[in-house]
Specification:
alpha/beta; Amidase signature (AS) enzymes; single chain; two-stranded antiparallel ribbon; 14 strands; 466 residues
Length: 466
């Protein structure tokens, strides 16, 4: 077995239960690792375990396991800042429902993690020294908005962590850092105690280095502890590749890695079926993906502030924004709604229509899920702002990175990203599995088998040496 910092959640639980290591010793090992990797800027606070006598007992599905928690998820007695200046002194008095379930299952908090300010970004870049570095290459960003959680899991500071996902904020950083990330069916996990920006789209999600760990976290967060199911049969190992939508305009290195992963899956007995027609209009989907949150953000933030008797208002939070890219998006909301009610409801109807077509495409193919590259390009370099160069021309960073993760968020479907390999520069690449709503456990079972088959194959490249 590898060292404690590389143990999966289940490996750590086994070691603790069998007496190979105590809860306090495990906590000390990971706390030391955390201190050694402060260069990653994964955590907002000092954090760390409570005194040994107060550590959770090694019972429960998460007994003795530390988790990283994104800094827009409330943990009682620990600041929730959403990495925005106006909330730097905000100290919730009660746990979010998500953290309460984890805590009751035996987890303890390693610390709150850095994030793209107010969860309104896809790179994790920040202006106040809160920019998380990618553990595979510290000159690259992690992706966002759940940037610090991805860095902490990938670097072995924790075996798993919580984030949130509105349009890709779990899956983008997980893919760019080389770990697994899961967005559940919208509404599967409780939402009380989050700094939300879009009740229609926001959900807590999880990251880990192993799909079995994600299954444990999903059972805890959903409250659905189900008996083990048989592995998917060969007839169920059917995936659809939406070639005309999510497979276009890929970076050549990303294309090489994901095509190699597809070859490995075919060799392992998977049936991968091309869907050559456009599944949806990409520009229309991206418009829907951005307009609905913009219409909901003011009310969502105000609701959170009122629920905590905060002296701040939406206006004071927005006026204090630190990041130029987030200011450019949200400052116009101070002058009034950016999206009219008619446009908002039209966007919701359009998203529902797209979801219906996607479901029909899966059913007609007899497939369990769509398979796509998680992102169309690898991790961006430090200093990346509003735009980036692709094929010699500037393109918007936001729409570039959410292009393939936005559909499942718009449709409310569960979505799982898995490591697929590395570019020739050692940067991680992910593949994305999107399944119909409420098929979460089936998707995780498929993902587990997919990850196993990929791990047994000769995948491209290896990570950079940190």
């Amino acid at each position: 077995m590898t060292g404690p910092d590389q143990w999966t959640l289940l490996q750590a639980r086994t070691a603790i239960r069998e007496g190979a290591i105590s809860t306090a010793e495990y906590a000390s090992e990971l706390t030391t690792r955390k201190r050694q990797r402060t260069d990653l800027h994964a955590f907002v606070d000092g954090g760390g375990p409570p005194p040994a006598a107060l550590l959770p007992a090694d019972s429960g599905p998460l007994g003795g396991i530390p988790l990283a928690v994104k800094d827009n998820i409330d943990v009682a007695g620990t600041s929730t800042t959403a990495c925005t200046p106006a909330l730097h002194q905000h100290l919730p008095l009660r746990d979010s429902a998500a953290w309460r379930r984890c805590s009751e299952a035996g987890a303890w908090l390693m610390g709150k993690t850095t994030m793209h300010e107010l969860a309104y970004g896809v790179t994790g870049a920040h202006t106040d020294g809160l920019t998380a570095r990618n553990p595979t290459d510290r000159d690259r960003l992690t992706g966002g908005s759940s940037s610090g959680t991805a860095a902490a899991v990938a670097a072995g500071l924790v075996p798993g962590g919580l984030g949130t996902d509105t349009g890709g904020s779990i899956r983008i950083p997980a893919a760019l850092c080389g770990v697994a990330g899961f967005r559940p069916t919208t509404g599967r996990y409780p939402s009380q105690g989050l700094v939300r920006v879009s009740p229609t789209r926001d959900t807590v999600g999880v990251m880990a280095r192993d799909v079995d760990d994600i299954k444990v976290l999903d059972a805890v967060l959903s409250g659905h502890v189900l008996p083990s199911a048989p592995p998917p049969s060969p007839a169920q190992r059917v995936l659809v590749l939406p070639r005309a939508t999510t497979w276009t305009d890929l970076d050549p290195e990303v294309a090489r890695v994901v095509e190699g992963a597809c070859d490995a899956l075919r060799a392992a007995g998977w049936s991968l079926r091309d869907f050559p027609e456009p599944l949806y209009d990409t520009a229309e989907l991206l418009d829907v993906a951005t307009s609905v949150p913009l219409a909901e953000t003011r009310a969502a933030v105000e609701d959170y502030l009122r629920g905590h008797d905060s002296p701040h208002t939406f206006d004071t939070v927005i006026e204090g924004l630190a990041s130029p890219d987030v200011r450019a998006i949200l400052m116009p909301l101070l002058d009034g709604p950016a999206i009219t009610p008619d446009l908002y409801h039209s966007a919701l109807r359009t998203g529902a229509r797209m979801a219906s077509r996607a479901l029909s495409a899966l059913e007609s193919a007899g497939a369990a899920a769509f398979l796509s590259p998680t992102t169309i390009t690898a991790a961006p370099p430090l200093g990346t702002g509003w735009s980036m160069l692709r094929a010699g021309r500037p393109v918007p960073v936001f729409s570039t990175y959410i292009r393939n993760t936005a559909p499942s968020a718009v449709w409310g479907w569960p979505s799982l990203t898995l490591p697929a390999g590395y570019t020739s520069r050692g940067w991680p690449v992910g593949i994305l599995l999107d399944a119909p709503p409420r098929h979460d456990r089936r998707l995780l079972d498929l993902g587990r088998l997919c990850a196993r088959d990929l791990s047994m194959a000769s995948l491209p490249g290896s990570p950079c040496t940190p």
